[in-house]
Amino acid sequence: MYSYLDFERPISDLEAKIIELKKLADDGESIDTSEEIARLETRVSEAMTDIYGKLSPWQKAQVARHPQRPHFVDYARRLFTDFTTVAGDRNFGEDAAIQAGFARFRGRPVAVIGEEKGHDTKSRLKHNFGMPRPEGYRKAIRVMELADRFKLPVISIVDTQGAYPGVGAEERGQAEAIARSTQMCLRIGVPMITLVIGEGMSGGAIAIAAANRVYMLEHAIYSVISPEGAASILWRDSARAKEAATNMKITAQDLKEFGIVEQIIPEPVGGAHRNADTVIDASGDQIADGLSEFDGKSAEEIRNMRRQKFLAIGRNL
């Protein structure tokens, strides 16, 4: 069973009926339910196509936050081999919200940095709900420095509602850590590819996403602040998050038009959680295409291409 969002009620009702009919068949009832199941499955397909063909920005935000959406660990398990993680920042401690290390991507050695939210209560607490602390960003800096030294491409996978705003994080230099991580993204002389798989909010995202190429899943969101945060600041009312999401232009489609992201990776109708392997494989293909663009280029060329990418944002609006 899937967890259903509010706007998916027509789908949930139909799929509940299908489950009931299949249970009757499994229990050995003499009634032939195959024809009714087929009819309902057709209606489900039509309802999903209709609903997901006209999602609002706020609905896309809900899909991006879906609890069953594949997370960094799912991508890492399928895309990388020989993944060896790096722990700690050699200053304060370990931050499990950011997972980082070295691996092979389709046989090619790479550095990997990703934000992990966790799938259940225990893992969410362990990973701090995907909200990195300063030591997480300093760990990312360590990995990027090593990648630059050994000429390894960097692949980052973004999924966070923002950096952790707690007192301890601020005392340990949260803003400075985010700034230095962003600076390191821009400084390295190796290709950097970023994939936004869910939420990419605030400096918590850009700290590991100032890359040569930024790709987004179809229903992912990417912005300087969450819709709830923007509503709280602009109107002092977080309940107006839906209105904020519409005005902020946070969807992959808007951001591609602005030149902030290069490519959008399609999702199955119903969201990435409906067929995670297909989405992850398509993401891998896009990452491979992105890396191939930088084959044979010098460190200075790679840095300059990254610089020009960011300088060009907004010029053609």
Write out key terms for the chains shown.
single chain, 317 residues, alpha/beta, 2-enoyl-CoA Hydratase, Chain A, domain 1, 2 domains, 8 strands, globular
Please identify which CATH superfamily of the largest domain we are dealing with. Answer: 2-enoyl-CoA Hydratase, Chain A, domain 1
User: Order of SSEs, N→C?
Assistant: HHHHEEEHHEHHEHEEHHHEHH
| CATH hierarchy, class of the largest domain | Alpha Beta
Structural class: alpha/beta
The profile of the biggest β sheet is: 8 strands, mixed
Nearest-angstrom radius of gyration?
A: 21 Å
Total strands: 8
Tell me which oligomeric state these chains represent. single chain
In the predicted model, the low-confidence regions spanning at least 5 consecutive residues are: none
Domain count: the total is 2
Which strand-content bin applies to the residues?
Answer: 15-25%
Question: N- to C-terminal separation?
Answer: 44 Å
Q: What is the percent of helical residues?
A: 40-55%
User: Which CATH architecture of the largest domain is right?
Assistant: Alpha-Beta Complex
Per the principal axes of the C-alpha atoms, what is the gross shape?
globular
Under CATH, the topology of the largest domain is which? 2-enoyl-CoA Hydratase, Chain A, domain 1
Average the pLDDT over all residues and give the rounded result.
94
Helix segment tally: 14
Q: Can you summarize this structure?
A:
This protein has helices at residues 9-26, 34-52, 57-64, 72-79, 121-126, 134-149, 167-171, 174-187, 202-206, 227-234, 241-248, 252-258, 276-292, 299-312, and strands at residues 80-86, 98-105, 108-115, 154-160, 192-201, 213-217, 221-223, 263-265. By secondary structure, it is α/β, with parallel strands linked by helices.
